[in-house]
Design goal:
Keywords: Membrane, Transmembrane, Transmembrane helix. 70% of the residues lie in helices and 1% in strands. The chain is an all-alpha fold. It has one domain. Helix 1 packs across helix 18 and helix 3 crosses helix 10. The two termini are 44 Å apart.
Length: 507
């Protein structure tokens, strides 16, 4: 209860003009990046990461939370107007949003998306605030062997969640684990894989790895892309939108029903707690569940607002769910929480069971910002910039990506003041570009790199405590629980053929 009161008390920090400006600016930037096809809120977070050095921890985390929420709802703009999801989490929104746009109801579709996003974001944030302290207390029961099994479970789940490319995801995770071994040994004061190069003694810094993996790789990917969205942009630009057009009819909201919103929120939240699941999986499961229980399943994919509401409620509820494993175990739920984890580590905050009690004052403002962004900034942003949404995609790509490239290179240098780390960011960008080009998911590589040091440390400690007996992972209850959980997930995601993922749906 004390933590919950502390979170709601943190709303007073929004009265500080500096905090308020960074939260609003972060939400605005996140919306723009999520709306532009090819850009993501993850990229926005990676580019702005170096700025966190000049901010207080509370302000930096509040800005990150607003970017996160904006990234989930902003992708619905282009998913609806030009049938190109600005973010992977909005792929299911396009199935009904774009048909509504073709019927002249594009503004209403965006209104439904905003209401779903607002509801999902608020429920996800409230569940996070209410349940995180209890999850933190339960995590105290996890000992050394259990921590290794938990981290191994996280990596396995992220790998097998990449339907159709599990082998490539596994290899990508191995590359990340290998990168994590460079530098000082986790248990002994010796260096590994530095090849006599002193700049590698401290290992690969987190900042250039993140900037290279997301920003540099995205620039190279877009430069190599031949996709032309100019025609679709011109068609959507012909529609004149007014602010009152974004208010959906009350009859449509009643028809969708509170049950649909809430059920989709719960699906999104609990999917978010699974490492690597992400907003796209949450939106897909909520959408398919809504179709399954609907009395008019044939109307979905043809402009049914209920499909938009389910998709957007779920993918924004994922924000709250993904924070749970990141804060209590240091396991990112998706790429954005991986970057938020980087902000915590950079500022000397170690995620774990004690975080909610020892450093609750630093975390509470971030959760307050997450709730504020959902309830206030989502509807306010749609009302203010709704009529100009489509103009976002008209920005010249040559200018846009030149600016991004400059920010990425300068940011990676400013973060460390090291020319080596700047070139490391470029090298990681090239590596991530080729991995993406040949179908290797870079999120598994990044997760392997982030979790690698702790995975190795807990493995070696567990074996040291058991005199090298590997059966210790099956005899300790906490470890056995995660081993069984890994087997269960492997059965349902690999052996038992699941439904198609949203990436395979037409958009």
């Amino acid at each position: 209860m004390d933590f919950i009161l502390q979170v709601f008390g943190s709303f007073s920090l929004l009265l500080d003009p500096v905090n308020f400006i960074y939260v609003v600016l972060g939400f605005f930037i996140g919306t723009i990046f999520a709306a532009i096809p090819g850009l993501t809120a993850t990229l926005a977070m990676a580019l702005l990461l170096p700025l966190t050095y000049s901010l207080s921890v509370e302000t930096a985390l509040m800005a990150c939370a607003s970017i996160y929420m904006a990234g989930m709802c902003g992708g619905s703009i282009t998913a609806t107007t030009i049938n190109i999801p600005g973010a992977p989490s909005s792929m299911m929104t396009a199935l009904d949003g774009y048909p509504m746009q073709q019927q002249g109801k594009g503004a209403q579709a965006l209104g439904h998306a905003a209401i779903g996003s607002m509801f999902g974001g608020a429920v996800g944030a409230l569940l996070l605030i209410a349940l995180a302290p209890f999850v933190a207390e339960l995590s105290l029961l996890v000992k050394t062997t259990g921590k290794f099994s938990l981290l191994a479970f996280a990596i396995v789940v992220v790998v097998i969640a990449q339907r159709g490319r599990v082998a490539k995801a596994g290899l990508s995770a191995c590359i990340g684990l290998m990168l994590a071994t460079i530098g000082l040994d986790a248990m002994e004061p010796i260096t590994r894989f530095t090849y006599g190069y002193s700049n590698l003694t401290a290992g690969l810094a987190l900042m250039p790895v993140i900037i290279g993996t997301f920003a540099i790789a995205e620039i190279l990917t877009q430069a190599n892309s031949s996709r032309d969205i100019s025609v679709a942009t011109q068609e959507a630009g012909k529609t004149k939108l007014r602010r009152r057009d974004f208010l959906p009819p009350l009859a449509d909201i009643r028809k969708i029903g509170f049950g649909c919103y809430f059920k989709s929120c719960l699906i999104g939240y609990f999917v978010g707690t699974l490492p690597g699941a992400g907003g796209s999986m949450g939106a897909f499961l909520a959408y398919t569940e809504t179709v399954r229980t609907s009395s008019e399943p044939e109307t979905f994919g043809k402009g049914n607002p209920k499909g938009i509401a389910a998709s957007e409620s779920a993918n924004n509820a994922v924000c709250g769910g993904a924070m749970v494993p990141m804060l209590t175990f240091g396991i990112p739920g998706d790429p954005i929480t991986a970057i938020v984890l980087g902000v915590l580590v950079i500022n000397g905050i170690q995620p774990g069971p004690q975080l909610m009690t020892d450093q609750a004052g630093l975390i509470a403002p971030m959760l307050a910002s997450l709730l504020f962004s959902a309830v206030v900034l989502i509807p306010l942003t749609l009302w203010l910039i709704g009529p100009y949404c489509i103009k976002i995609v008209s920005i010249r790509k040559d200018v846009l990506y030149a600016v991004i490239a400059l920010l990425a290179v300068v940011g990676s240098f400013v973060a460390t003041y090291s020319t080596f780390q700047m070139f490391l960011a470029l090298g990681m960008g090239v590596l991530a570009f080729y991995l993406r080009r040949f179908g290797f998911p870079v999120i598994t590589m990044l997760l392997g790199y982030i979790l690698g040091p702790n995975l190795e440390e807990f493995l070696r400690r567990s074996l040291a405590l058991s005199n090298g007996d590997p059966t210790t992972f099956f005899t300790n209850p906490d470890s056995l629980f995660f081993v069984v959980l890994t087997v269960v997930f492997f059965y349902f995601l690999v052996i038992r053929k699941p439904a198609k993922m949203p990436g395979s749906a037409s958009s």
